[in-house]
Amino acid sequence: MKKFVLGLGAQKCGTSWLYDYFSKRDDFFDGFMKEYHIFDAENRGKIFDRFLRKSIGSLVSENPKNWSKDKQLLRLSMFINIQNYYNYFFDNLKDKKKIFTADITPTYSTLSPRILKNIKSNFEKRDIEVIPVFLMRDPVNRLRSQAKMKLRNPRKKATKSEELAEMRRLVGTREDNIRVDYSSTHDAIKKVFGEKSFFCLYEELFSNEQIKKLCNLIDIPFVKPDFAFRVNESKSKNNITKEDLMKFTPSYKKQYEFAIDLFGKEKIEEKWQNFNEKL
After folding, report:
1. What would the pLDDT profile of 118-172 be if each residue is shown by its tens digit?
2. Residues whose CB is less than 8 angstroms from the CB of residue 147 and which lie 6 or more positions away in sequence, other chains included
């Protein structure tokens, strides 16, 4: 049975690196993008509006004969008829050399069990098994990575005070709360897919052990990754101390408690360095 990897985030937790690892494999059909945003875009007004403008612009400027080659128009066809989404992967997995494919859209972390069940059912009708993947990162470090991305500017490096100010601006916002609601995403995945799910800490992802586990779950041969390679990494030379970061820890009490329940206190104390048992 062919496999479809459904990446549900979380954002800034290694999803781009994972997709890059997949895309370098001969047995992977990489489609025309990493993030399709088919199931979340309508609920995210700005994303959907921007996508529609791009699609309409392509429609106006392109020769009709080339429409099927334009990724924005392909996505538009999927919005118009969701079956085009499922059939796109089904048709391309007919290639005997391609064993699996993926849609790794971090904002899918908000998808309800009802939508996940529908995705699973539609692929099963095409004899394709869905493998959900959810990566979680120390919430404070994820917040810092998000702040660095927001401040990314090739002409001007953000200062320490600017970086911390951006973290303070983001923490506790609706956007932040949605992206670190690890427990809700986990519970939705478990409800629909049960044990055939891959949950992993970002801090453990870059290891042969975890990649072997994922390959076994997908039922593909293990191919050694390039762990030194990073995708979309926002580097910073600012000396932000552990004391600076620990000031944000109380905002994520729920996330740390959930992670302890799922992975154990010993592992979280070791891997999530901003955890404080006095929370």
Report:
1. 999 999 999 999 999 999 999 999 999 999 999 988 788 899 999 999 999 999 9
2. 163, 166, 167, 170
pTM listed for this prediction: 0.91
**Calpha distance 139→198 (Å, rounded):** 19
| 3-state DSSP percent of the chain in helix, strand and coil, to 5 | 55, 10, 35
- How does pLDDT run across 3-56, given as a tens digit for each residue? 999 999 999 999 999 999 999 999 999 999 999 999 986 555 566 666 666 666
Q: Indicate the burial class of 142 (C-beta count within 10 angstroms; 0-12, 13-18, 19 or more).
A: buried
CB atoms within 10 A of CB 110: 19
Q: What is the rounded (10 degree) CA torsion for 240, 244, 245, 249?
A: 180
Phi, psi of 129 (to 5 degrees): -95, 135
Task: Name, in order, each residue with C-beta under 8 angstroms of 241's C-beta and a sequence gap of 6 or more.
Answer: none
Size (the chain), residues: 279
With CA atoms as reference, report the closest residue to 5 among 186, 178, 219. Answer: 219
Which phi-psi region, left, alpha or beta, contains residue 71 (left: φ > 0; alpha: ψ -120 to 50)? alpha
Element (H, E) at 201: strand 198-201
Q: Give backbone dihedrals phi and psi of 104, rounded to 5 degrees, phi first.
A: -115, 90
Cβ atoms of 51 and 41 closer than 8 Å: yes
Residue 6 CB contacts under 8 Å (≥ 6 apart), including other chains: 102, 103, 104, 108, 116, 119, 130, 131, 132, 133
